[in-house]
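Please review this pair:
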Amino acid sequence: MTNDEELLHIDQVIDRLGMRFPELPRESIEQVVHSAHEHFANGKVRDFVPLLVERLAREKLQRMAPIAPAAPPAAPVAEPKTGAEVIAVGRWRWSGWLRGWYPDVRMPMIVVVAPRAAFPCPDRV
């Protein structure tokens, strides 16, 4: 990589960091990038200098960027459960214990309760 190509890449680094940190003035970003570039001035392998400059400058700019206070997340609202849902959840939880502690073969138990009129008993007529 020639010196001109390296400087072109450094200008692109400034542009990318300017888009990433719009709240910081452009002059501050340029100063940080040029300072990081001077840090690698004596390196013998120049191919990765723009990448290393961008990483170092990004870390410095993240420390300089103002931190906006985050709004606390809203508390989750629990939906009321019906009696059947509570029973089904309880059976799911205990199904592994009832089958001999095999958690990989647990299956939910579904119980359907029919009204009495659906199944008339001959002795209760």
